[in-house]
Amino acid sequence: MIQIHHLTLSHRKDLRPLLTDFSLTLHPGDKAVIVGEEGNGKSTLLKWIYDPALIDGYAEGQGQRILQGETLGYLPQELPEAERKTRVCDYFNSPESFRDRDPAALSRLAARLRLPAELFCSPRPMETLSGGEKVKLQMARLLMARPDVWLLDEPSNDIDVDTLEWMEDFIRQCRGIVLFISHDETLIEAAANRVILLEQLRRKTASRWTVANVPFRQFMAERSAGFDRQAQLAQSERREERIALEKFRRIQQKVEHQQNAISRQDPHGGRLLKKKMASVKAVERRYRREHQQMTEYPEQELAILVKFHGEQAVPPGKVVLDLALPELRRPDGAVLARNVNLTVQGPEKICLTGANGAGKTTLLRQILALLEQRPDLQVCYMPQNYEDLLELDETPIDYLAPSGHKDDVTVVRTYLGSLRYTPDEMSHAIRELSGGQKAKLLLLKMSLSGANVLLLDEPTRNFSPLSGPEVRALLRSFPGAIISVSHDRKYLAEVADKVYALTADGLQIIYS
Predict the structure, then answer these.
(1) Alpha helices, DSSP H only, in 311-385?
(2) CATH topology agreement for domains 2-223 and 310-511
(3) Alpha-carbon torsion 160, 164, 166, 171, what sign?
(4) What is the pTM for the complete model shown?
(5) How far, in Å, CA of 45 to CA of 10, rounded?
(6) d(C-alpha 346, C-alpha 498), whole Å
């Protein structure tokens, strides 16, 4: 069992509250998912539970964490910087639990995670692996350690569909405690039996948290129904209040008119009207007390996103890409696939999927290099690793309005506000933002660029389950062409017109 008592988390720089007086008890068999909008402190909470020192650089935590001898295992959202240049073989030489494993056990572990067994002994630096391979290798090290409490920050990031299904089964069947964050709604719906919702309200000046002991889909349905009931009750009470107030004002006006019209020669009538006005004032005071006790309209955090414009459209008959690649090679020269052919026409939405390490990101980068040479196309790229495009020491305003002109800055501030950035966050260094906030920044840049072709590498990987539906609808409505890499099953179903699997023998159509 793990207990958290009266935890308060806040940003050091702007003192913004992330979590206030949070308490939680988790028992073996609990599979709890933390959900909330980007930047609401989900990763910060998970880090604090694992090791409070991990948040010291940017946040402050006050509260009590109680363990009863449990060992904790932590999967970070991104591979720690200190381990990125580490060779894979060295990465697995540090835990005693790994060195003690016989080759047969390592082969079984590799098969579970759909990894080549020889990868454990590879001299390749960790940073050269695909995103999915990094996640799988971190999971492999955790599986060897056999923790009692699994703290997983986006374990579904970048892993292929078969491994996603394995991850669902693993979380469901785990006998210990699993506390995880994920953007993958299918995984959440299949694996979580408890939901922890973190919200930022009143322009991020107040925090609210909810713990529900029900599956995610049931939680969202009950939450929506509860908001609807509360809104209807609040509306009904205010309608009844308006009717009563109108009646009250007519009476008040009548008494005031009688007071103004009464003759000084009628003192008895004046005393009666004075008493009547005192009664009217008493009714007014009662209405004011009742108004304070009325049901409030439901307050909820809404995911507000950008829009693309019609001038970004691609004509239906225009050939955006006609690719015929004899060989797809990794930067080190290794052949990943042969006979890679792909044609994209008009505003098609194409998605590439396949096993981790198959070369999807490599292929997308080669397509980018080809399309950037086309003067008739305006191309924007969203990499899997946001640091490839973002200068982390810049602020969001610097990134979106490099001219620094007052009018440009004003427009950018308006757009960032629509994405729920606070004024302080607009002036923070980009490195201090969450993964989802960085993703929103790139989406906003795309919408402002006028691009008519988007190349997206795992575009939904850092968006919360609350933002996910809006992001998918946004991309589905994009009037230009999209070529993307994704393993997000809802993205595949809702956005893609055609889905291809990248194999050693080229691209194989899955559906169109």
Answers:
(1) 360-371
(2) yes
(3) positive
(4) 0.71
(5) 11
(6) 13
DSSP 8-state assignment for residue 470:
H
Q: In this structure, are strands 194-201 and 319-329 parallel, antiparallel, or unpaired?
A: unpaired
Residue with tokens 């590439």: 352
Question: Is 302 a residue whose pLDDT tops 60?
Answer: no
Checking if the pLDDT of 180 tops 80, the result is yes
Please check whether residue 198 is in contact with residue 181, taking contact to mean a CB–CB distance below 8 angstroms.
no
Q: What's the CA gap between 337 and 363, in Å, rounded?
A: 10
Q: Give CA–CA dist 345/319, Å, rounded.
A: 4
Question: How far apart (Å, rounded) are the C-alpha atoms in residues 30 and 34?
Answer: 13
Give 77's contacts (C-beta < 8 A, 6+ positions apart).
43, 153, 154, 157, 181, 435, 462
Q: In the chain, what is the straight-line distance between the N-terminal and C-terminal CA atoms, in Å?
A: 48
The alpha-carbon radius of gyration of the chain (Å, integer) is 29
Distance (Å, rounded) from C-alpha 342 to C-alpha 346?
14
Distance from C-alpha of 212 to C-alpha of 218, rounded to nearest angstrom: 10
pLDDT in tens, 337-384: 999 999 999 999 999 999 888 999 999 999 999 999 999 999 999 998
Determine contact, residues 255/277, Cβ cutoff 8 Å: yes
| Contact predicate 154/187, CB 8 Å | no
Q: Give residue 493's pLDDT.
A: 93
Which residue spans within 288-365 are E strands per DSSP? 319-329, 335-345, 349-353
CA 18 to chain centre: 15
| CATH number of this structure's domain 310-511 | 3.40.50.300
Residue-range domain boundaries for the chain:
2-223, 225-292, 310-511
- Give the architecture (CATH level 2) of 2-223: 3-Layer(aba) Sandwich (3.40)
| Residue 496 DSSP SS3 | coil
